[in-house]
Design brief:
The complex is a heterodimer of chains A (about 400) and B (about 260). Chain A has about 400 residues and is mainly α. Chain A is about 75% helix and about 0% strand. Chain A folds into two domains: about 300 residues, ABC transporter involved in vitamin B12 uptake, BtuC (Orthogonal Bundle); about 80 residues, no CATH class. Chain A has 16 helices and two strands. Chain B is about 30% helix and about 30% strand. Chain B has eight helices and twelve strands. In chain B, strands 6-9-10-3-11-12 form a six-stranded mixed sheet, sandwiched between helices. Chain B has a four-stranded antiparallel sheet with strand order 2-1-4-5, with helices on one face. A two-stranded antiparallel ribbon of chain B has the order 7-8. In chain B, α5 runs parallel beside α6.
């Protein structure tokens, strides 16, 4: 006698299996993130999921997440940028120097390092796009150079302590609350603005998913059955809701989170809705074809590396501000976390493929690992090994599912 | 009367690469609504000649006339401007993008622009792509399919459709049937015939004389940088092939 004899139920399970198989690459990272969260929640007896830790985790992920977004674009055009970790550290130290020793205001210092970030990106773009030096080599030189520059800036004083309150708020502050909403009922001790924003995000998410589904139906694409679609909506909404609830219970949404959200939305828009994004994907998919249709591969290369430079500066700001100081080791290995985040998030090492949303999830995977293992008190040497394994697993998974997809077609 | 003026006329084109004379003074004429086959052995100069016409190379000597007007072709941008589209073998499409994105690659229609950057008008591009494929009788399940999921013949059809999509005056196809299955070759040749029916002027470079025989009105043979044969496509395939191959391999060399 079969275990399941209801034909409807069998069909449901079959279709669920099929959907899972077809979207396994996209879902893989969400599942990985979920598994990581569950494991750490159990091993830390719930501390991992506490409001305080999640809030910290988001602030920690911020400076890697912005780098991962820039790195995703670089990887899409089949390059890599190893220099951005120390560039981020170096630019953070420059900002600290400007504020503490030259007595510049915070906005002016920030403007300065954004300009320097663009300049650095322009330099990489020149080496890679103009001189045709492999990005690996050009940015390895950058890695050495910026590391030296960082040590030069911090040589005499060691750590530069930042005393500018405005600057430090970027990495430590939280958005203000709505004081006119009374502190009653379930809202007691809850950050109302954060709570409200969370609800808005859920509504926006549901509407955009329905819209997307309708568009796919219009184009005769196969979509998941309606009940699975609803399950997905409910699960994702619940996830956003839980995060919102956790954050509202602590101090609300941090400025770092706001910064990351703005950067994500901006880049998502550029990559999916504008001709610039289209050209970046085209150059990644087939540079010769792109060039022949009149897209300047050189210009795209410059643009992508300059955007990487700006985001490296932003990462430097987030990091220095979070620790209220610039240190000699700031930015160490950031570039590798960013590359790993992009790969975990589904970017393809052979170029042309990668999503902003994926890289953000990838960044959370990498930083959750770090945070969780720190909470568990795991020795740093083992932490590196675990992160290495996760990176390899992500790329192997990507290659394996891609090959499988090709076999089907 | 206007039809008597050839759409493209190339006179005495010469091109050297270092010490090697790739083209030693070649003339080429393409009439309106004509399909011209261009054949020759490797290094005969076919691709060089077509790269000159599409602006990728600049000739050392010689003149190019479009619709009877002498022009100065200095870049692929100039060629685009004059309505000359070159379709390269295997280089045409980005597999990671869908059909719409590929058809409009490099000339996306935009709603709103700041400088060079603008918001894509997906709706318009989708509709136009559907119309284009309809017109050329190319059958696809959806214009939003990624190119990597299409067959070789479908890809080549999309590439050809794109080259002709923007009212090209002349479309140059470099080996459009290379590396395709027999069924796919037939589809591509049908598409070329359809394009002629709709009034296009086309130059096809190919090793496959059978293919050119099926679709071309006229054929030019190049050998070692010179034109050695310029003939109408007539007679049965075997006689024709024998005739042309003699010129390709240099067994006959009696062109005035």
């Amino acid at each position: 006698m079969p275990l399941i004899n209801n034909p409807e139920e069998t069909a449901l399970i079959k279709s669920a299996n099929k959907i899972l198989q077809e979207n396994i690459r996209e879902w893989g990272m969400y599942i990985a993130l979920l598994v990581i969260i569950i494991i750490f929640t159990i091993t830390t007896k719930g501390v991992f999921l506490s409001s305080r830790n999640i809030s910290n985790l988001i602030n920690q992920t911020g400076y890697i997440a912005v780098l991962a977004i820039g790195m995703t674009l670089v990887i899409i055009i089949s390059h890599i940028d190893l220099s951005v970790g120390y560039l981020s550290g170096f630019l953070g130290a420059v900002a600290a120097t400007a504020m503490e020793f030259w007595h510049w205001s915070a906005p002016l210092s920030i403007a300065l390092i954004f300009a320097l970030g663009i300049l650095a990106g322009f330099l990489t773009g020149f080496l890679v796009g103009q001189m045709k030096i492999p990005a690996f080599v050009a940015t390895l030189a950058g890695w050495l150079g910026y590391r030296g520059a960082l040590q030069l800036v911090t040589m005499h004083r060691g750590t530069i302590v930042i005393t500018n309150n405005f600057f430090n708020a970027i990495g430590n502050g939280y958005i203000p609350d709505l004081s006119f909403i009374p502190d009653v009922g379930f809202l007691r001790g809850i950050h109302k603005l954060t709570f409200l924003l969370g609800i808005l995000v859920i509504i926006f998410y549901i509407l955009s998913e329905i819209n997307r589904r309708n568009r796919m139906l219009y184009h005769n694409f196969k979509v998941s059955p309606i009940h699975l679609f609803i399950v997905k909506l409910v699960l994702m909404s619940a996830l956003i809701g839980v995060i919102t609830w956790i954050l509202s219970g602590y101090r609300g949404l941090s400025w770092t989170a706001v910064t990351v959200i703005v950067v994500v939305l901006f880049y998502h828009f550029i990559m999916n809705r504008t001709n610039l994004g289209r050209h970046i994907y085209a150059v990644g998919g087939n540079p010769e074809a792109a060039q022949l249709t009149g897209i300047s591969v050189k210009r795209i290369t410059y643009t992508v590396f300059c955007s990487m430079g700006i985001l490296a500066a932003l990462s430097g700001i987030l990091y220095a501000s979070r620790f209220k100081s610039a240190t000699t080791t700031a930015g160490t290995l950031f570039e590798l976390d960013a590359v790993a985040a992009a790969f975990v998030g589904g970017a393809s090492p052979s170029g042309g493929i990668g999503k902003i949303s994926g890289s953000i999830v990838g960044a959370f995977v990498m930083m959750s690992l770090t945070s969780g293992m720190n909470l568990m008190g795991i020795d740093i040497s083992y932490q590196y090994v675990v992160r290495a394994l996760v990176l390899v697993a992500a790329v192997v998974f990507d290659v394996a599912t891609r090959n499988k997809k090709e076999e089907i077609t | 009367m206007i039809d008597r003026v050839p759409v493209v006329k190339m006179c005495n084109i010469k091109k050297n690469f270092g010490g090697v004379q790739a083209l030693k003074g070649v003339d080429l004429v393409l009439h309106h609504n004509e399909i011209l086959g261009l054949v020759g052995d490797n290094a005969a100069g076919k691709s060089t000649l077509m790269k000159i016409l599409s602006g990728a190379y600049i000739p050392d000597e010689g003149e190019i006339f479009i619709e009877g007007k002498k022009i100065n072709m200095a870049s692929s941008r100039d060629a685009h401007h004059y309505g000359i589209e070159m379709l390269y073998q295997d280089l045409a499409l980005a597999n990671n993008l869908d059909v719409v994105a590929n058809v409009f690659m490099g000339r996306e229609k935009m709603n709103f622009k700041i400088g060079d950057i603008g918001i894509l008008d997906e709706h318009y591009m989708e509709r136009e792509t559907e119309r284009l494929l309809d017109r050329l009788k190319i059958d696809l399940a959806s214009v939003r399919l990624k190119v990597e999921s299409l067959s070789g013949g479908q890809r080549q059809a999309i590439a050809i459709a794109r080259a002709t999509a923007f009212n090209a005056r002349v479309t140059i196809m470099d080996e459009p049937t290379a590396a395709l299955s027999v069924a796919a070759i037939k589809k591509v040749l049908d598409l070329v015939k359809e394009l002629k029916k709709q009034g296009n002027s086309i130059i096809i470079i190919s090793h496959r004389i059978e293919d050119i025989y099926q679709v071309s009105d006229r054929m030019i043979v190049l050998r070692q940088g010179r034109k050695v044969c310029d003939t109408r496509v007539t007679g049965d395939i075997d006689t024709f092939r024998e005739h042309v191959v003699a010129y390709i391999i240099g067994a006959r060399d009696d062109y005035a």
